[in-house]
Amino acid sequence: MEEDASLFPKKELLDNVPLVEDERDELEDREFEAEFLPGEAGNSADSGCLCPEKQHNADADISKKKTAIPDGLQARHLRKTLSHLEKLREEKELFIQKTRGELHACRQRMDLITKQQASVSAEVAAEKEANNTAAVGRLQAVSRRLCTELNNERDLQSKIKALLQKSESSMWHIAIQERPLKDGPKSAQEEEVAGRKRLQEQAAKEEAALEKAERNRLLRARKSIYLQREHGLRHQKLVEDAQKNHKIAVRFLKASLRRIREQERKEERKSRAHMKRRMDAVLALKNSITANRETLRKFQAWGQAKAELAEQKAQAEKEMILGQGGDAFKHLFHQRRCQELDAQKRTFEEEQKLRKQEIVSRILKEAAEEENRKKKQSSPAKATDRLTLRDKTWRCVTDVCEGRDTAVLSRHLLDSDGAAHPKAPQLLEAISSESVQGDPGNTSWEDDTLAEPEVPGLWKEDYKPYQVPKEEVARKTVGGTKMDKDTLARTTEQVRCRVTHKRVVSRCEFKGRPFNSKPKLIHFKDFDIGKVYKKKITLINATYTINYCKLVGVEDHLQDFIHIEFDPPGPMSAGMSCEVLVTFKPMINKDLEGNVSFMAQTGGFSVPLKCSPKKCALSLDKELIDFGSYVVGETTSRTITLTNIGGLGTKFKFLPASESYEMDISQSVMKISSVFTDEDKSLYDRIITSISEQQIEGNESFPTDMPSQKESGKRDSKEQEEGRPTEGVTVTTVVTIPPNEEQTEISLGEVTEGEIGPFSSIKVPVIFTPIVPGEVQTKFKVVFKNQQCPTLYFRVVGVAIDVPVWVPKPNVDLKMCMYDRLYQDSVLVHTRSKVALRLKFEVCKELREHMELLPETGYIQAQSSYAVQLKFLPRHSLPEDAGKYFDKESRVLEAPMTIRVADQIKPVGFTVHAVVTTSDLELSPSAVDFGYCTIYEAIRTQVSLYNHSLLPQGFGFVGLPKFVDIQPNDGFGTILPLEMLHLDVIFQPTKAKEYNFELVCKSEINRCFKLACRAVGVHPPLELSHYQVKFAATSLYDMSVATLYVINSHVSMNSLTHSVPRIGSEDASPVGPTSFEFLPPPDSPITISPSVGTVLPGKRCLIQVVFRPVLPSKLIHQEASQALTKPVEVKLLRKDTATQRKDLRRQSSTPRLQNQDRLHRTSTTPIAELCEQDFKFSSDEYQAAQATLARSFQGKFDKFVVPCVVASGDTKDRKGTEPLSFSPHNTLYLELWCPAVAPSIVVTSNRGKTISNFGDIAVGHHGIKKVSIQNISAEDLAVEFSMLNPNGPFVLLNAISKLLAGETHVLTLSFSPHESVLAQETLDIITKRGTLSLTLLGTGVASMITCSIEGNTLDMGYVIARESVSSSFKLQNCSTLPIKFSLRLDSLSRSKSEDQQRLPQFLASRAQRTEVVGTQNNSGQSVFSVIPVKGIMDPGKAQDFTVTFSPDHESLYFSDRLQIVLFEKKLSHQILLKGAAREHMMFVEGGDPLDVPVESLTVIPTYDPERREGEPWGGGGGGLGAVRGPLLLPTCTLSPRKPEGQLPHSLGGSPTPPHWPQPGPLSSEAEELKPILVTLDYIQLDTDTPAPSATRELQVGCIRTTQLSPKKTVEFSLDSSTALQHKGFTIEPSRGSVERGQTKTISISWMPPADFDPDHPLMVSALLQLKGDVKETYKVLFVAQVVTGP
To answer: How far apart are CA 1488 and CA 1542, in angstroms?
Structure first.
């Protein structure tokens, strides 16, 4: 409070403070520092005190210098001295001016403080008059503070005055010293003047600076005082709010305690009522089980007896029929049919009765509604001619009773069912009544007896009284039958016309009733529904003559309940009597009144009939109870009697008239005691069940509270489940009686409620206990469970006389009290006595150690008051000492105090109330161990502060060390009653050592509570550049990167120069390389690289932290499962609905439920299987679920703490898997803040998948994919795209630069593979709010096909000219995509015409020839053909191709090239097609080529078939045969080298080699010879090993043909074999035959003979003859030579 006293100064505090310049100037010093004025003055004084000392020292120096300086330098010395004195003088003047300003400011502050003291004194006087202690205390504290400040200002003023005097004396001394120096030379004066000007300028500047500083100081002071005043006002407001809140809390606490006590009483009453209901239910169950057992035994005995009787009867009839010679089986069958018909007839009659009863119940309901409507209406409604519902219903009943069509009735019932439903209780009563009485003509099982008389016929009764037939009774309706209507009309007409016989006897005419009834009134009193009542009346002839009597009937509204049995006696003499039996069958619980009409000879008469149900007739014996006068403290009682003269009992309750109470309302359904057939019993069971359900579920059946209906419905359903019979539905209204907190003077006795039986009485005591003097009057009422019974009221009056001594405040409330603190209060006692009385004050012995009344004895004067002092000092033993006066749960103390008055029996008492609470504050836990903590981090632990007190307490942690912080509010605050506050204790060590300290928490009453703490500080060898990384908001599947450093600053073990790494007080860590490892949490979106590394001393290592938020895989699986199961569930739901509709038509309720369960089990099986399905990352379902969740993502914030383990040593130096030595206490922690947000751009195409798979694309082709992206953010975004690989296969065709909010753009992507490879790239769509990554996948597939032809050459062989031969080959597709192919022949290409313009190929050398198209058909058609020409080959499939060779003339050089082109652009294979054609069926292959593979322009003549075989050539062997016309041969050079493939010789001529002999002139035979050159080279080796012989081969073949030929084989022979052998040639075979389509090889080998000259080649010729369809002769030239080997 003393600190806050300075917060209430007046506004004049600084209004009169003068400022050096304008007050609106701002402070130049931006840093605000609150400084006290005395401190500043002290500093100024100190600074001022130093100036005289300096002056004295300066004077001493000057005097010494004057004596020491020579005369030559005197002038210069004087100038210097004068300038120095001038400077000192100016400084003194400036200081004196500043000191005077401070003195003036001090005086102004003293005046201001004096004014504040006067104002505070006035406020203290005003508050003392207002008796405001708190405000007086606060103002006194303010006054004391002002006094202290005034004393300080006075001390400061005295100091400033002394300083000012001292400064002025120094100034005078300087002036005295300055006078003699002014007489110096003018130059010195001029210099002096110049120096003085400079000093003045400098002083002016300093003065301006000082003025500015002074202005800043004053502004700071004003701002500080203004802030203090604002703080004081705010603090005062907080104090007032706290006091208000305290009052509200006390009031709330009282209300809460009262509400808790009330709730406990309610719970106790509820538990008792619940226990009573359970006991009643158990007893009812026991009685019901006993009754059911008896009923079952009765049923069993009756059934056995009936079966035995039926069996005996059937046996007797059977024997009788057999004895008479009849057909017993036929008779029994006929009897059984008759019984079935009777049963059906009875069933029909029962149904008619049920319909009739329903109609009657509806009529009664309509009548009740009509009565209510008439009561509500003020004037009666006008009658209309329209038939009412009741008339229509009675007409339908009449039709049913007369046997008319029942369809009309059912239609009317259906129409009226929606308009008015019968009340369930009335319908039950009707059913129960009918079932109890039954049909008078039928006998029930209760009327049957199993007993038999000892003498047969003893119990028979021959006389049977006359009864009205059943048909007449049942069918007697409003109008009766037609005959009854006629009779009634005639009788009515006679009565109207007074057509009666007058009885005159002895001239006296009889007047009055012809018959007297005894009794006069037929009264059925106190009837019960379901029972049958009978009464007999006697009719006495009261006339003077013989008279007759006939029953007319009862009134219409009594016909359903009254049955008359009357046997007309015939003529009755005067005074004779007859009996009439009246039977009453009650079906409704209602008063019935009417007449029973009779007709006599002299006229009609009637007997009144009245039916009264059981009723309660309750009354009190008195309505006023007057107790008279009684003294306060006495007790007396009276009784009041409640009498019931009715036949129905009910429950009652006495209670004050001001309280509300509702009794239980019960409506029960009567038991059905009659026994029916099985069909009837099931029918009635169904009716009872349906009506019970209507009672439970219908809101219109019982106008009571809904909770009661629900409870009763549950109870009835439970009873039905347990097998107990439901006797009725009981609706109970919960009774709520507010408890009387104050003791009443007039009260009721213990018996205030119970049940009063019929014709009984109950006495209830009324007790009068006067408490307060005066007249007391209370009104009570008696309420009953039966609503028909009115509430009875009575009044109680009494007068109380008081004692002379009393306490005006009988309850002394000490409010909240704490243990071990003293509380006092004054208790005032008054007396109305006219004499003095002695008082003795007593405290109950249980509280004498805690409470005291002083003085214990005193005297009170006549008609005055006396004050006694109450002292209350609660100890901690109060709960045990006080006993019953102290409630330990609520902590409320109610201590009774007694004042005993002399000569007075009754003492005067008063009660002391207090809520005693403790002031304890509990810290949990009592000790905190922070463990090991590095100097780079802080450990936070949570402690709980619990307030055991019922009062709010202020608390604060004081004396905290620098390394400990407590939050919130720095460990200060206010804790509410019974509140637990959680405080965070933050420990951050400053150096490595062991910490043991205590934290002290003080309460506002100066109680201390300590918390012991211990910890170990750790200085790790490594440190991080950042210990907390806050990532920016990152979109899903985007990436944010942050960098930091791991630093090793440990370079020296010298602990004196700097702190070295160590754990607590252990040894320091060694200097050297230190390794680290980051351990990110598993399944986190955090990636740290490098996570392991080594840092050398004085070095640092760069660390990169990557945050990439993703959705959990489990959540994506769940979303995918839901997406799959949703259509399945809809389908199953539709199927289930259709099945249920079918079940509603076909099955009953029980099979339907079973079917539903089966469907449910069936439906859950596929759903469960779908839920258990595992989805892969690349599956469509997974990608779609991921896109859906990303689109609806609401954002997420995660905080991760990543530990970094530190170990000494280098990771490279460890041996094998040996771990490095590390300590877990050196662990560093990196805190990561990771906010994840929804992506701004999403993919809307392809179900949201970000992976675009182009699939398999052939190399050289391209595929197009379109991806739709949408901006789902609320702002326009600038879009950038990452660079794709320029040499890669992926290309973005339509890039954009901006995407508007909500806009969708379609990206077109192209994939063009250049080689067979799996390509994958990532396209990043970059915006300022995140990056969307699209993964592009594609596979380049090369068009790989294989051909079945080896060597890419297809040789068709020899064919007869103008015939054809076919050959096939296969192409296999070895790639994974279909391939489109086409086949082309070079002979049919468009470039053939261009090639023909070039130089002929035969003019070029063999090496320069590139022409592949050889001889073609003369007809212009291609000699080769291929099918199919084009098509598509599926992956992995093979395609068959057929090549057909069809020459039209003879040639050995048919050739062409077949090109296989894929996708119309890629050349895959080139196949060389070759073939030869002959006119005849034989051919020879082998030897050296002698011509060019180009067809000659020579015309080959036809052979002369008449030429003789073996005719020699003309002119030698060099001719080519006879030709017609000139022979044109191309010039060529024969190559001695053998080609790779042996080509067949041309049939045309060839030039003669130069070393050959020139042939002679051609003859006719020479035309048929065909040359074959065979060259053999014998390789001679240098070694002695003999070389192998030189070998060559010739092939002789026979062409397969379809032409008819006389010879099927070709024969060949080679002559001159002997001559050849001599030359070293060996030929095998020299002759033979070849079949068609076959070839035979002729092997030729040569070994040089001994006389062979290597310089001259050996040339030998031989004739080879072939014989087939023609004969051909070949001249084979053998050229052999020896060559040197390598």
So the answer is: 7
